[in-house]
Structure to design on (353 residues):
Protein backbone atom coordinates (compact mmCIF):
# COMPACT_ATOMS: atom_id res chain seq x y z
CA UNK A 1 0.00 0.00 0.00
CA UNK A 2 1.30 3.46 -0.92
CA UNK A 3 1.80 5.96 1.90
CA UNK A 4 2.14 8.81 -0.61
CA UNK A 5 1.29 9.21 -4.29
CA UNK A 6 2.30 12.17 -6.44
CA UNK A 7 0.60 12.35 -9.85
CA UNK A 8 1.97 14.74 -12.48
CA UNK A 9 2.90 17.47 -10.01
CA UNK A 10 4.05 20.73 -11.61
CA UNK A 11 5.05 24.04 -10.07
CA UNK A 12 6.17 27.31 -11.59
CA UNK A 13 7.49 30.43 -9.87
CA UNK A 14 7.09 33.28 -12.32
CA UNK A 15 8.84 32.29 -15.54
CA UNK A 16 10.77 29.45 -13.91
CA UNK A 17 9.44 25.90 -14.20
CA UNK A 18 10.61 24.41 -10.88
CA UNK A 19 8.82 21.05 -11.14
CA UNK A 20 7.69 19.50 -14.41
CA UNK A 21 5.16 16.66 -14.10
CA UNK A 22 6.66 14.78 -11.13
CA UNK A 23 5.10 11.37 -10.36
CA UNK A 24 6.10 8.79 -7.75
CA UNK A 25 4.74 6.43 -5.13
CA UNK A 26 6.14 6.02 -1.62
CA UNK A 27 5.53 2.76 0.25
CA UNK A 28 3.93 2.97 3.69
CA UNK A 29 7.16 1.81 5.40
CA UNK A 30 9.66 3.28 2.93
CA UNK A 31 12.46 5.80 3.33
CA UNK A 32 12.82 7.72 0.08
CA UNK A 33 15.68 10.16 -0.48
CA UNK A 34 15.20 13.10 -2.85
CA UNK A 35 18.66 13.79 -4.23
CA UNK A 36 19.93 16.36 -6.66
CA UNK A 37 21.89 19.59 -7.15
CA UNK A 38 20.82 22.91 -5.70
CA UNK A 39 17.80 24.37 -7.47
CA UNK A 40 16.51 21.08 -8.91
CA UNK A 41 13.20 21.25 -6.98
CA UNK A 42 13.82 18.93 -4.00
CA UNK A 43 12.60 21.25 -1.25
CA UNK A 44 9.70 22.43 -3.41
CA UNK A 45 8.42 18.84 -3.53
CA UNK A 46 8.34 18.74 0.29
CA UNK A 47 6.65 22.14 0.55
CA UNK A 48 3.93 21.05 -1.88
CA UNK A 49 3.30 17.84 0.07
CA UNK A 50 3.17 19.79 3.34
CA UNK A 51 0.88 22.44 1.86
CA UNK A 52 3.28 25.37 2.26
CA UNK A 53 3.04 25.93 -1.51
CA UNK A 54 0.13 25.24 -3.87
CA UNK A 55 0.51 22.95 -6.87
CA UNK A 56 -0.11 24.35 -10.35
CA UNK A 57 -1.38 20.95 -11.44
CA UNK A 58 -1.39 17.34 -10.31
CA UNK A 59 -2.65 15.28 -7.39
CA UNK A 60 -1.19 14.50 -3.95
CA UNK A 61 -2.57 11.50 -2.06
CA UNK A 62 -1.60 10.56 1.51
CA UNK A 63 -2.99 7.24 2.70
CA UNK A 64 -5.20 7.27 -0.43
CA UNK A 65 -6.73 10.67 0.51
CA UNK A 66 -6.49 13.66 -1.84
CA UNK A 67 -4.80 16.48 0.10
CA UNK A 68 -3.51 19.04 -2.44
CA UNK A 69 -6.49 21.34 -1.68
CA UNK A 70 -6.33 20.90 2.11
CA UNK A 71 -4.75 23.31 4.59
CA UNK A 72 -1.33 22.24 5.97
CA UNK A 73 -2.79 21.45 9.41
CA UNK A 74 -5.29 19.03 7.85
CA UNK A 75 -2.75 16.94 5.93
CA UNK A 76 -1.22 15.12 8.93
CA UNK A 77 2.39 15.51 7.80
CA UNK A 78 5.46 16.55 9.78
CA UNK A 79 8.13 18.74 8.16
CA UNK A 80 11.58 19.01 9.78
CA UNK A 81 13.83 21.85 8.57
CA UNK A 82 17.62 22.07 8.56
CA UNK A 83 17.65 24.98 11.04
CA UNK A 84 15.75 23.01 13.76
CA UNK A 85 13.13 25.80 14.31
CA UNK A 86 13.16 25.35 18.11
CA UNK A 87 11.91 27.95 20.59
CA UNK A 88 15.10 29.09 22.40
CA UNK A 89 13.27 30.30 25.54
CA UNK A 90 11.49 26.95 26.04
CA UNK A 91 12.89 23.82 27.63
CA UNK A 92 13.19 20.58 25.67
CA UNK A 93 10.05 19.40 27.44
CA UNK A 94 8.05 22.46 26.38
CA UNK A 95 9.40 22.35 22.82
CA UNK A 96 8.27 18.75 22.50
CA UNK A 97 4.90 19.49 24.09
CA UNK A 98 4.15 22.58 22.01
CA UNK A 99 2.49 20.87 18.97
CA UNK A 100 0.21 18.91 21.32
CA UNK A 101 -0.78 21.98 23.34
CA UNK A 102 -1.70 23.79 20.11
CA UNK A 103 -3.81 20.78 19.14
CA UNK A 104 -5.63 20.90 22.49
CA UNK A 105 -4.39 17.55 23.81
CA UNK A 106 -5.02 16.96 27.53
CA UNK A 107 -2.18 17.73 29.94
CA UNK A 108 -1.71 14.19 31.26
CA UNK A 109 -1.53 12.73 27.76
CA UNK A 110 0.98 15.41 26.78
CA UNK A 111 3.24 14.48 29.70
CA UNK A 112 3.06 10.81 28.81
CA UNK A 113 3.84 11.34 25.12
CA UNK A 114 6.65 13.80 25.84
CA UNK A 115 8.28 11.27 28.17
CA UNK A 116 7.89 8.48 25.61
CA UNK A 117 9.36 10.51 22.74
CA UNK A 118 12.22 11.83 24.91
CA UNK A 119 13.18 8.28 25.90
CA UNK A 120 12.96 7.13 22.28
CA UNK A 121 15.42 9.86 21.24
CA UNK A 122 17.76 9.56 24.23
CA UNK A 123 16.71 12.92 25.65
CA UNK A 124 15.12 11.72 28.87
CA UNK A 125 17.74 13.48 31.01
CA UNK A 126 17.67 16.76 29.04
CA UNK A 127 13.99 17.72 29.36
CA UNK A 128 14.71 20.73 31.60
CA UNK A 129 17.47 22.09 29.35
CA UNK A 130 16.99 24.81 26.76
CA UNK A 131 18.18 24.46 23.14
CA UNK A 132 21.23 26.63 23.81
CA UNK A 133 22.49 24.04 26.31
CA UNK A 134 22.33 21.19 23.77
CA UNK A 135 24.74 19.98 21.10
CA UNK A 136 23.81 20.21 17.42
CA UNK A 137 22.86 16.54 17.35
CA UNK A 138 20.67 16.89 20.44
CA UNK A 139 18.90 19.93 18.97
CA UNK A 140 18.22 17.94 15.81
CA UNK A 141 16.76 15.14 17.95
CA UNK A 142 14.42 17.64 19.60
CA UNK A 143 13.31 18.84 16.16
CA UNK A 144 12.64 15.24 15.16
CA UNK A 145 10.84 14.70 18.44
CA UNK A 146 8.42 17.56 17.76
CA UNK A 147 7.58 15.82 14.48
CA UNK A 148 7.25 12.35 16.03
CA UNK A 149 5.04 13.45 18.90
CA UNK A 150 2.27 14.49 16.47
CA UNK A 151 2.07 10.92 15.13
CA UNK A 152 1.97 12.07 11.49
CA UNK A 153 1.13 9.93 8.46
CA UNK A 154 4.42 10.87 6.78
CA UNK A 155 7.72 12.51 7.79
CA UNK A 156 9.34 15.13 5.53
CA UNK A 157 12.98 16.01 6.31
CA UNK A 158 14.49 18.97 4.45
CA UNK A 159 18.31 18.63 4.63
CA UNK A 160 18.20 18.12 8.42
CA UNK A 161 21.90 17.24 8.71
CA UNK A 162 23.48 20.02 6.66
CA UNK A 163 24.39 22.14 9.71
CA UNK A 164 26.22 19.31 11.50
CA UNK A 165 29.91 18.42 11.29
CA UNK A 166 30.98 15.39 9.26
CA UNK A 167 31.29 12.91 12.15
CA UNK A 168 27.95 13.90 13.66
CA UNK A 169 26.25 13.68 10.25
CA UNK A 170 27.31 10.05 9.95
CA UNK A 171 25.91 9.23 13.41
CA UNK A 172 22.67 11.13 12.84
CA UNK A 173 21.92 9.55 9.49
CA UNK A 174 22.22 6.12 11.15
CA UNK A 175 19.91 7.27 13.94
CA UNK A 176 17.32 8.61 11.49
CA UNK A 177 17.26 5.31 9.58
CA UNK A 178 16.87 3.31 12.82
CA UNK A 179 14.18 5.70 14.03
CA UNK A 180 12.24 5.41 10.77
CA UNK A 181 12.38 1.62 11.00
CA UNK A 182 11.04 1.66 14.58
CA UNK A 183 8.24 4.10 13.74
CA UNK A 184 7.28 2.20 10.58
CA UNK A 185 6.12 5.38 8.83
CA UNK A 186 7.02 6.63 5.34
CA UNK A 187 9.74 9.26 5.25
CA UNK A 188 11.13 11.55 2.56
CA UNK A 189 14.62 12.84 3.26
CA UNK A 190 15.98 15.66 1.07
CA UNK A 191 19.72 16.05 0.55
CA UNK A 192 22.31 17.09 -2.02
CA UNK A 193 24.86 14.71 -0.42
CA UNK A 194 25.13 11.46 -2.38
CA UNK A 195 26.79 9.64 0.56
CA UNK A 196 23.73 10.44 2.68
CA UNK A 197 21.44 9.18 -0.04
CA UNK A 198 23.33 5.96 -0.73
CA UNK A 199 23.59 4.97 2.94
CA UNK A 200 20.07 5.91 4.05
CA UNK A 201 17.64 5.28 1.21
CA UNK A 202 15.42 2.34 0.40
CA UNK A 203 15.05 4.16 -2.92
CA UNK A 204 16.48 7.36 -4.36
CA UNK A 205 14.68 9.84 -6.61
CA UNK A 206 17.39 11.81 -8.40
CA UNK A 207 16.04 15.15 -9.63
CA UNK A 208 17.45 17.22 -12.45
CA UNK A 209 15.92 20.52 -13.61
CA UNK A 210 12.52 19.77 -12.12
CA UNK A 211 12.22 16.21 -13.41
CA UNK A 212 12.98 12.80 -11.93
CA UNK A 213 16.04 11.62 -13.82
CA UNK A 214 15.89 8.17 -12.21
CA UNK A 215 14.00 6.47 -9.38
CA UNK A 216 15.40 3.26 -7.93
CA UNK A 217 17.49 1.61 -5.25
CA UNK A 218 20.97 3.01 -4.51
CA UNK A 219 22.48 -0.04 -6.24
CA UNK A 220 20.39 0.54 -9.37
CA UNK A 221 21.43 4.18 -9.68
CA UNK A 222 25.10 3.28 -9.24
CA UNK A 223 25.37 0.17 -11.42
CA UNK A 224 22.61 0.88 -13.97
CA UNK A 225 22.34 4.67 -14.27
CA UNK A 226 19.61 5.76 -16.67
CA UNK A 227 21.68 8.61 -18.08
CA UNK A 228 25.02 10.34 -18.12
CA UNK A 229 23.71 12.79 -15.52
CA UNK A 230 22.95 9.98 -13.05
CA UNK A 231 26.29 8.28 -13.70
CA UNK A 232 28.20 11.51 -13.06
CA UNK A 233 26.19 12.52 -9.99
CA UNK A 234 26.47 9.16 -8.20
CA UNK A 235 29.87 7.80 -7.22
CA UNK A 236 33.12 8.98 -5.63
CA UNK A 237 35.56 9.34 -7.34
CA UNK A 238 33.45 10.39 -10.31
CA UNK A 239 32.95 8.04 -13.22
CA UNK A 240 35.37 8.26 -16.15
CA UNK A 241 33.67 9.40 -19.37
CA UNK A 242 35.48 8.79 -22.65
CA UNK A 243 34.47 9.66 -26.19
CA UNK A 244 34.82 6.39 -28.08
CA UNK A 245 33.77 4.53 -31.18
CA UNK A 246 32.73 0.98 -31.96
CA UNK A 247 34.35 -0.58 -35.03
CA UNK A 248 33.70 -4.17 -36.11
CA UNK A 249 32.65 -5.27 -32.64
CA UNK A 250 35.60 -3.61 -30.85
CA UNK A 251 35.73 -0.38 -28.89
CA UNK A 252 38.38 2.26 -29.43
CA UNK A 253 40.43 3.74 -27.82
CA UNK A 254 39.72 1.17 -25.05
CA UNK A 255 40.23 -2.09 -26.91
CA UNK A 256 37.45 -4.31 -25.59
CA UNK A 257 34.63 -6.25 -27.22
CA UNK A 258 31.47 -4.19 -27.73
CA UNK A 259 28.15 -5.83 -26.74
CA UNK A 260 26.12 -6.49 -29.92
CA UNK A 261 23.14 -4.56 -28.52
CA UNK A 262 25.21 -1.36 -28.57
CA UNK A 263 25.70 -1.55 -32.33
CA UNK A 264 23.19 -0.14 -34.77
CA UNK A 265 21.05 -2.68 -36.59
CA UNK A 266 22.12 -1.16 -39.91
CA UNK A 267 25.73 -0.32 -39.15
CA UNK A 268 28.48 -1.93 -37.08
CA UNK A 269 30.14 1.42 -36.39
CA UNK A 270 28.93 4.26 -34.15
CA UNK A 271 30.15 6.92 -31.75
CA UNK A 272 29.46 6.26 -28.07
CA UNK A 273 30.20 7.87 -24.74
CA UNK A 274 31.81 5.25 -22.50
CA UNK A 275 31.48 5.34 -18.71
CA UNK A 276 34.04 3.47 -16.60
CA UNK A 277 33.93 3.51 -12.82
CA UNK A 278 37.37 4.05 -11.19
CA UNK A 279 37.18 0.62 -9.53
CA UNK A 280 36.92 -0.98 -13.00
CA UNK A 281 40.34 0.44 -13.95
CA UNK A 282 43.18 -1.68 -12.50
CA UNK A 283 46.83 -0.70 -12.71
CA UNK A 284 48.79 -3.94 -13.19
CA UNK A 285 52.03 -5.02 -14.86
CA UNK A 286 50.27 -7.19 -17.46
CA UNK A 287 47.50 -4.70 -18.35
CA UNK A 288 46.34 -4.40 -21.95
CA UNK A 289 46.82 -0.61 -22.15
CA UNK A 290 49.64 1.82 -21.37
CA UNK A 291 49.38 5.27 -19.79
CA UNK A 292 51.34 7.93 -17.93
CA UNK A 293 50.65 8.72 -14.26
CA UNK A 294 49.32 12.29 -14.03
CA UNK A 295 48.56 12.49 -10.28
CA UNK A 296 48.12 10.34 -7.18
CA UNK A 297 45.96 10.89 -4.06
CA UNK A 298 46.32 9.02 -0.77
CA UNK A 299 42.94 8.32 0.86
CA UNK A 300 44.05 6.21 3.83
CA UNK A 301 42.95 2.74 2.81
CA UNK A 302 43.77 3.16 -0.89
CA UNK A 303 45.23 5.43 -3.53
CA UNK A 304 43.40 7.13 -6.39
CA UNK A 305 45.59 7.57 -9.44
CA UNK A 306 44.84 9.74 -12.47
CA UNK A 307 46.24 8.43 -15.76
CA UNK A 308 46.91 10.22 -19.05
CA UNK A 309 45.62 7.90 -21.76
CA UNK A 310 45.22 8.73 -25.43
CA UNK A 311 44.83 12.45 -24.71
CA UNK A 312 42.20 11.85 -22.00
CA UNK A 313 42.35 11.41 -18.22
CA UNK A 314 41.32 8.16 -16.59
CA UNK A 315 40.96 7.72 -12.82
CA UNK A 316 41.76 4.38 -11.16
CA UNK A 317 40.98 3.35 -7.58
CA UNK A 318 42.48 -0.14 -8.03
CA UNK A 319 46.16 0.66 -7.68
CA UNK A 320 49.20 -1.02 -6.14
CA UNK A 321 50.61 0.22 -2.84
CA UNK A 322 52.79 2.19 -2.97
CA UNK A 323 51.40 3.69 -6.18
CA UNK A 324 53.47 4.47 -9.27
CA UNK A 325 55.18 7.87 -9.33
CA UNK A 326 53.90 10.89 -11.23
CA UNK A 327 55.26 10.80 -14.78
CA UNK A 328 55.86 7.05 -14.67
CA UNK A 329 54.65 4.82 -17.50
CA UNK A 330 52.25 2.09 -16.34
CA UNK A 331 49.93 -0.52 -17.75
CA UNK A 332 46.29 -0.96 -16.85
CA UNK A 333 43.28 -3.10 -17.66
CA UNK A 334 39.54 -2.36 -17.78
CA UNK A 335 36.80 -4.71 -16.59
CA UNK A 336 34.63 -4.87 -19.71
CA UNK A 337 31.66 -6.17 -17.72
CA UNK A 338 31.46 -2.88 -15.80
CA UNK A 339 31.67 -0.58 -18.82
CA UNK A 340 28.60 1.62 -19.40
CA UNK A 341 27.56 3.04 -22.77
CA UNK A 342 25.71 6.33 -23.32
CA UNK A 343 24.27 8.06 -26.36
CA UNK A 344 26.57 11.06 -27.01
CA UNK A 345 23.64 13.22 -28.18
CA UNK A 346 20.95 12.51 -25.55
CA UNK A 347 23.03 11.22 -22.64
CA UNK A 348 20.69 8.22 -22.23
CA UNK A 349 22.31 4.92 -21.28
CA UNK A 350 22.42 2.32 -24.02
CA UNK A 351 21.40 -1.16 -22.92
CA UNK A 352 24.21 -3.75 -22.91
CA UNK A 353 21.82 -6.63 -23.48
Amino acid sequence: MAGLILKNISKRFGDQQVLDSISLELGEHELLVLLGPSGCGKSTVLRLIAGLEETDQGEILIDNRRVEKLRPRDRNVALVFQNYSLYPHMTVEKNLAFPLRVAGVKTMEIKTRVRQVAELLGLGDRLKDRPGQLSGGQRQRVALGRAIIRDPAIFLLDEPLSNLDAELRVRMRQEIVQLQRRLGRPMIHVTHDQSEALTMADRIALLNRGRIEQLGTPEELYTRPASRFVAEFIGTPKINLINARTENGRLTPIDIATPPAILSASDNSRSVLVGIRPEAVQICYDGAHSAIVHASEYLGDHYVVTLEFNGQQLVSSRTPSPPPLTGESVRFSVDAKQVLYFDPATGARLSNT
About this structure: The longest helix spans residues 166-183.
